[in-house]
Amino acid sequence: MNAWVKAECGIGVYLASAKEIERTNVVFFDDKKQTVPIYTKFDDGAGNKLWTLCEGLTSY
Q: For the whole model, what pTM was predicted?
């Protein structure tokens, strides 16, 4: 396996096999470090507003 493949696939192999994160759910990882949970990045109200805006822009 060449170095590029090892570098690109390393995090995926780590996340698939690491025992210390076996029960981790709904989080992002950056270079094997857990980052901000996904639920803190999204606002349900904003999603609904965007949907309504898009409907208005595409209606005739």
A: 0.44
